[in-house]
Specification:
Keywords: Calcium, Cell adhesion, Cell junction, Cell membrane, Cell projection, Disulfide bond, EGF-like domain, Glycoprotein, Integrin, Magnesium, Membrane, Metal-binding, Myogenesis, Phosphoprotein, Receptor, Repeat, Signal, Transmembrane, Transmembrane helix
Subcellular location: Cell membrane; Cell projection, Invadopodium membrane; Cell projection, Lamellipodium; Cell projection, Ruffle membrane
GO biological process, one term: cell-cell adhesion
Strand order of the largest sheet: 4-6-22-21-16-19
Helix content: 10-25%
Shape: flat
Strand content: 15-25%
Organism: Pundamilia nyererei
Family: Belongs to the integrin beta chain family.
Low-confidence stretches: 1-25
Structural class: alpha+beta
Number of helices: 16
Length: 799
Amino acid sequence: MMDLRLLLIAALSAALSGSLAQQDGSICIKANAQSCGECIQVSEICGWCTDEKFLSEGESKSARCDDVTYLKKKDCKNIEDPRGSTEITQNKDVTVRNKDGNVKLKPEEITQIQPQKLKVTLRSGEPQTFDLKFKRAEDYPIDLYYLMDLSFSMKDDLENVKNLGTDLMREMREITSDFRIGFGSFVEKTVMPYISTTPARLINPCSNNENCTSPFSYKNVLKLTSNGDRFNQLVSQQQISGNLDSPEGGFDAIMQVAVCEEQIGWRNVTRLLVFSTDAGFHFAGDGKLGGIVLPNDGKCHLENNVYSMSHYYDYPSIAHLVQKLSDHNIQTIFAVTEEFQPVYQELKNLIPKSAVGTLSSNSSNVIKLIIDAYNSLSSEVILENSKLPEGVSISYKAFCKNGVRGTEDNGRKCTNISIGDEVSFKISIESQKCPSGGKPEVITVKPLGFNEEVAIELNFICDCECAKKGEPNSPKCHGGNGIFECGACKCNEGRIGRECECSKDEVRSDDLDANCRKPNSTDICSNNGECLCGTCECKKRENPAEVYSGKYCECDNFNCDRSGNLLCGGHGRCECRKCICDTNYTGNACECSLDESTCLAKNGQLCNGRGKCECGICKCEDPKFQGPTCEVCPTCPGVCTEHKDCVQCRAFGDGEKKEMCQKECSYFNLIKVKDRKDLPQPTDQSFPLTHCKEKDANDCWFYYTYAITKNSTKEVFVVEKLDCPSGPDIIPIVAGVVAGIVLIGLALLLIWKLLMIIHDRREFAKFEKEKMNAKWDTGENPIYKSAVTTVINPKYEGK
């Protein structure tokens, strides 16, 4: 029985595998591709058969496009199945150096990302993957630009910033030997209502006799320099200004700092922008209050180091700033007072590679803030890519420090990276379709805040190689009505048919339809197809594995006899409604196996010498013996003991085979009954039945029957409750023991009390007796002395 089950499972598995393969192939067939180029765009599993004589009668040209494995099964010798590829064209190793080394490298000589250039060839649906390595270089140059709000509320802050240059230069020397610093300031747009435009206020916007400079939008005070003293000198000359409203025009200043690379002096190194303020900010749309409606153009407008178009262009939007900061690899540090922390925290969430630090009321902690923010920014690497062509997608997988891995959104970044650490990313690029034109395109992948990037040239497989060898106006295509390429005709405009033999205007006619009827039949293409150009083109069924074929579509591969609900029993193929059986199988549905190995018993005899082998199945002649090889005897001694452990584990989850129950005890059907009287009786069955009574490790009995039905199914009926001997009644025993202890204690107390009473009475009687016998002496005690002393006065004369 077990051997038969295994054979059935193997047959089902083979049929299921074939079905799944055809399900995949259905993607290719349903696309109805008319050329090799169209076929390979459908899916990466699709191939195009270029054999000229591949198609049988009635099959359409699109049948050449199918799953590659299925095309091979159909004996296609030449299959066009181009594959994508990845080629690294520049692969310079990442730089290994340190700050104390003797060799000082220029910024452009330092490499932190590898590889640098790739050429990727994409086929639709087939992803191409490559590895990217990033290593934080030691002693990497840094440019830092300090952008400060010089509105009146920042007066005390300016005093503390005047010595920032040399102090910050000294601290940054611990991080890099190549550090430059610059300074810029901002106030507000120089129009109402942001500032007062009265002549006096334009000269000195401050009140209370404060000496302030004229208002301005943004001023580049000092371009990036390695001279800290120069920074201190120029900053010391700066004066506070003023404006009317609380939000400042800092976004105008940030935009100019980002886009005016030459005037600021940015190098292709780590770029830091410190934005220091104690107020909020204006953004796109706020310019309307001053009559400014033109959107910010994102271009440099510095004249004599002053922003000259603040009155002309509106403030930039946050998205515009994000784009420009990213394009110019600038990392922003917002040094703001505690009051505006929540506002700038939200802004930080919108600007990648930015940080927020709490500025003290007088900016005394600005150096520590900058150092902490830089360490935070530099310890994180986030990859971004340029705009992708239509239909192209990219995915990332990160391999970070300490075995940490990231996928999806977290696949772009690694955190807690120290100087000298190396991390890697696996990047996968996939195209879902061939872009219009199919021309190569270049995309870039780079870590945010760094100037280095990976350039990836994307090439697209839009057509097959065999198409290049196509023969225009080929005689094979009905006198030159098409291009013969990849084994088939690609018809010219207005022509159709496998060989371009028909014009679209002459598709149907009575003469042509006559060629599509079987002799003595009125059905066109057997009602299973359409007559095109005098040739039957068979219908396609919903299941692409089912195919009509033949000159008149009279054949199919799905209407053959079945066995076990499988076409041709799973042991043959259906051709024109007849089963072509595999070797060792016969019958109309290939249901009869000629292999007698399944009938061999353990003793080497066919059917254990008690039956005949017919179609690979034993027909037992002795009614006592059953099973696939006539070796099972349910009524023979030893049946109960043999199946005890399996019945116990399946019915009660216990026994010696408890751990291996699923594996070793699934060979019978288990039916539970409530009581022994519900078990089947031998007189109720038309096949032998054995009643069993077995005891488990807890001395509990369980009852079951074992039988093999006529269809060779093993059945076990088992009583669902164990018959266990009743145990002692604990409560009376405990109560009796407690009562006994109490009674014994009371008895002992009574005996002790009784003995004490007897003893006391004896002692009292003895006392009374001695009292009666006592004799008292009335004589005077010789040692007795009276307490009274009589003294006679000698002078007393008795008178």
